[in-house]
Amino acid sequence: MKLSTRASLGTAALLLCAATVMTACGGGGAGNTNAGNELRVGRTGSIDGMSGDSCLGPASIQTMPMIYGSLLVNTPDGQGITGGLASDFKYDDKALTYTLPIRPEAKFSNGSAVTANDVVFSINEWRKGTVGGGYYEMIKGASAIDEHTVRIDLKRPDTFLPALLTWCTSTVYPANYAGSSPEEFFKKPIGAGPYQVDSWQNPGASEQITLSKNPNFYIPQKPSVDKIVITSSTDSAQQTLAYQSGQLDVIEQIGADDAPNVPSAEVIKSKPSQSMDLFLNKRRPVLADERVRQAISLAVNRADIATIQDGFVTAAVGVIPTNVPNSVAGSNPQRFDLDAAKKLMAEANPGPVNVTLAFEGGSSTVSNVANLIRDQLGKIGVTVTLRPSDSATIYDFGKSGDYDILMSTVTAISPTAFDPIGFLVVAWYPWTGSDMSVIQPEYTRGISTFDDAAKNAAVAAIQDDATKQSTLVGLYNQVAAYAVKPYVKGINPLPYRMWDAAQVQIERTGSA
Amino acid sequence: MTSHRFAFIGKRIVQTIPLLLVVLVAVFSMLKLVPGDPARQVAGPRASEAQIAVVREQLGLNESLPAQFFGYLSRIVHGDLGMTANGALHVSDVIRQNAPVTALVLSITIVFTALIAIPLAMLASHRPNGVIDRGLQVMATFGVGIPTFWMGIVLLAVVALPTGAFPTGGWGDTFAEQLRASTLPALALSISVAPILFASLRSSIIEVKRSDYYTAARAAGVEGSRLIRKFVLRNAAVPPIALLAALTTILLSGVVVVEATFGLPGLGQTLVEGAKKRDFNVVQGLTLLFTVCVVGVNLLGDVLIAIVDPRVELS
């Protein structure tokens, strides 16, 4: 029997509909509640690639260590650094060297041992990196002392390197990429982290990364979860629905906007850390007078702003993220004092002050904060025009100087206050036209010593300088929050917007 | 197909080349006007000016604008859409991986649209301006007015979440999972497209039923499905086919929205992400692809009209 074209098309359409209905009724697959020893994680953001050199965003910061591990890692409380693939580190401040003993039990996912040669190769790759190469400019060279010991020679005293070795840019590769070209290697990388890459589907905004347990991971009995499936989406509300339906076990970085849709007991938070600051462009004539900038800082009611994200932020007293080692307040913390602000404005007598406030407009919470700031500054006669933008444009405004006031975040990704301070030194201080005479030497002092008292003194001096110059105005410190199903144990969010996947377990009871 | 039709298709394909060039120039120029430094985006906020300069050199952003454009054009001619800005992937690989998602969603949307619009248009045209016709026209007006993202959210909240029959997002590994993942996005999209097809088809059917040949066919004893297929739908299909190009544009813009609402890894999402990240090669590659799609559907529409209605001359 020969079917006509129309009949064929009609039949195909009917079959498609029938198949859709049957698959919908049949269950299984993407819409199901996960019942195995598999963790389904949702996030709004995609990785920047599989190379450590391209590791920039939160998705990469979380994912790269899961695959590659790192020589040093954060302590579980996030307040220190401990051994990872290297069991320890030793600093010689006379010879200006670090010595790192590599764990003999450390192996790549293909079963080969992690050797000193692999680490030396990796360090040389980091230094050559287009994006991250500059971070390692303090390194003079690296050499293998023996099969399991690496020595790093420095150009100058530097105590920041251990923190840098926890970063996702410091990924350990097999020497010569195990015989592959870098391009081939990064399609399906080999690492020594707790998980290995099974697949990376549809790279981009809605990518899916499937990881399976690395059978050769150096910590015995870890990881305990067999498989992790990470799904990205641009829409946080869609992620929340997927979590509610049981399609996801964890949502990374859930915001204050979406948190009410998740049972409060299932929202796990880090200590408040990521700092949201205002950056005042000193090069603008209207903001050139220090008294005007100080008045703006004093007019910002941080407690009121914090109430917009109740439970997710704490009011700032400085510009450095809190709950990071050595992040101490200055002797003259930033504060709200409307009378003092008005008095300073009267003294400065700047005439009409009209400024724009650029901020990331994609977040309703940040937009609400911007509106509140406009109202608060209105009380001292500063007229604010809001300028919502996206994150790419915000940094472009910052660099080009085409702004009056910007609102943006400052984040630590490793346990030292000198991590975000380094960011301020290369970015926001020069971009705001701030005087570098305090921050530059204090930063150098802070990263040249392991003495906590000296580090704290340097940070306090930087905080006081920020209060005095008021080109940087702290608003609040934000938690990193995760929605986590009750049967998922061991997710311990660090202030650095990451969790240790090796420690996670799934403990289902009954039909949970 | 006659040689005349082949000549027509060949001529139309040649005519699309200047159009594609204009689109490429427009997209290239617009991307250059958009604020946001791609080199900084790739290098990250912590990068020093020296690092950013190296990235800028690697991305070829130090060259003059004409040199950048003609370099891009030369690569396209050789089938190379370039790398993603961070150098991690070939743009063509990204398109190859994500295109099947968009293709499946659009295919199901077209089927749903046809299944909704054709029977309802026939029903409405049975008694023009009757109660059913008026009711369906009101519904069609609502359908066109409902934003696709809102319909998507409603379907998620009313269908996916309580029943668990469809995923609230994501794609899936097997074809069955992917079919399920595409169903609600396609339904959301077809609810906004079907009313347009319905309105066009309804008018055409009413017009056909008023024609002499329809009356003659009935008088000659042609009835039932033969009458509908051979005399009504075939003749009424011409205006809706002419609408194809407009519908394709609506579908391509709508798919961007539903892919975001349902977290589908399709080309729409890739385009949005590319624009956010100032990934020029991705945006240019996808714009080129979408333009080719629209032009291709236009051409297909012309050929289909000529096949359906022999009175139409391809010239």
Question: Which keywords apply here?
Answer:
heterodimer; A: 512 residues; alpha+beta; 7-stranded mixed β-sheet; 6-stranded mixed β-sheet; 31% helix; disordered N terminus; B: 315 residues; mainly alpha; globular
Tell me about this structure.
The complex is a heterodimer of chains A (512) and B (315). Chain A contains 14 helices and 21 strands. With 512 residues, chain A is of the alpha+beta class. In chain A, the strands form 5 sheets. Chain A has a 7-stranded mixed beta sheet with strand order 8-9-10-1-11-19-12, sandwiched between helices. In chain A, strands 14-18-13-17-15-16 form a 6-stranded mixed beta sheet, with helices on both faces. A 4-stranded antiparallel beta sheet of chain A has the order 4-5-7-6, covered by helices on one side. In chain A, a hairpin with a 2-residue loop joins strand 6 (139-146) and strand 7 (149-154). The model of chain A is unreliable at 1-9, 11-16 and 21-32 (pLDDT under 50). By secondary structure, chain B is an all-alpha fold. Helices cover 78% and strands 0% of the residues of chain B. Chain B is built from 14 helices and no strands. Chain B has helices at residues 3-33, 38-43, 49-58, 65-77, 91-126, 131-145, 148-163, 175-209, 212-219, 224-236, 238-242, 244-261, 267-276, 280-308. The longest helix of chain B is centred in the middle third of the chain and has 36 residues, at 91-126. Chain B is globular and about 85 Å long. The model of chain B has no long low-confidence stretch (mean pLDDT 85). The chains are: A alpha+beta (512), B mainly alpha (315). The interface between A and B is large, with 64 and 69 residues.
